[in-house]
């Protein structure tokens, strides 16, 4: 249930073109790895991108013990995909 809520909040706030969310806690929703690709990250520093995500998840962060995120613009993701 926590995973679905986290995904819903990210989608609503950031309109990502790609969202990969992995529950690393064995299903209890306490730890997540996320890859978020959104045009809202354009022109923003890494810190500001993380702040946008943290703001979207402010209520859920009280229940989550670990949240690792990689935030990319669509152009950055395209370049990364070419190089992988």
UniProtKB/TrEMBL annotation:
Give TM regions. none
Offer an example of a GO molecular function term for this protein: 2 iron, 2 sulfur cluster binding
One biological-process term from Gene Ontology?
Answer: intracellular iron ion homeostasis
Q: Name one Pfam family in it.
A: BolA
Enumerate the InterPro entries for this protein: BOL2, BolA, BolA-like_sf
Q: Name one GO cellular component term.
A: cytosol
**What family is reported?**
Belongs to the BolA/IbaG family.
Name under which the protein is recorded: BolA-like protein, putative
Origin species: Theileria annulata
Q: What is the lineage of its organism?
A: Eukaryota, Sar, Alveolata, Apicomplexa, Aconoidasida
């Amino acid at each position: 249930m926590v995973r679905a809520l986290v995904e819903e909040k990210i989608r609503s706030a950031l309109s990502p073109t790609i969202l990969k969310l992995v529950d690393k806690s064995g299903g209890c929703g306490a730890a997540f790895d996320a890859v978020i690709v959104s045009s809202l990250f354009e022109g923003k520093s890494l810190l500001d991108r993380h702040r946008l995500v943290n703001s979207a998840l402010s209520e859920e962060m009280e229940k989550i013990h670990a949240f690792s995120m990689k935030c990319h613009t669509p152009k950055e993701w395209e370049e990364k995909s070419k190089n992988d």
